[in-house]
Amino acid sequence: MVPSYDCPRIGDKPIGSKSILKPFCLIDGARKKFNKLAFTGLLIHGVAYAFPQHPGAIARGVLTAHSAEPLNNIIHASYKYVWPYAKGQAIGQAIEPLYNTVVEASLKDKELYELLTMVDAIRVGRAREKEISKEELEKRIQNA
Residue 122: phi, psi to the nearest 5? Predict the structure, then answer.
C-alpha cells in the first residue's frame, strides 16, 4: 500500500494522484495529466543527489555528458566521458549509466540519447555544464 501524501494545491484542487508518483506530485489527479513542471524540477534539481556519479577509469564506450551531442557543440573540453560499452568507438572516463540498458536503448533512439547525456551532464558536470544542461532539458520537456 502506498502511503498517503499531501501534494501542493492550486486553489482548491490538489496536484497529484493516489499512484506511486503522488509523493513527487508528478501526476495531476484532477486532470489525469503528467505534471511536466514537477518532473522537470525533480529531474534538474534531484538527479545529481538521487544518482550521484564520479568519473571512473579510462574506458572504451559511448560518449555522454558534455562529450556528446548536443552539449559538445557548446562545451569544448579536453577530457571526455563515456558510458562503458565494448562496441563503443570513443575513449574517456567511465560514467555508470542510470540503468544497465541505457546504452543500447540510446543507440536506437537519438532523442533519448541526447536527453540522457544531458542528465549525465547534471550528474557529473561542472557548474557551467550543469546550467546549460538544465536549461536545455527544461526547454525540451516543456515543449514535449
Answer: -70, -40
Q: Tens of pLDDT along 19-63? A: 444 556 777 667 677 788 888 888 898 999 999 999 999 999 999
Strand partners, 63: 82
Three-state SS string across 40-107, please? HHHHHHHHHHHCCCCCCCEEEEEEEHHHCCCHHHCCCCCCCEEEECCCCCEEEEECCCCCCCHHHHHH
In tens, the pLDDT along 98-123 reads: 999 999 999 999 999 999 999 999 99
Taking the C-alpha atoms of 61, 75, 40 and 138 in order, what is their torsion angle to the nearest 10 degrees?
A: -130
* pTM of full prediction above 0.85: no
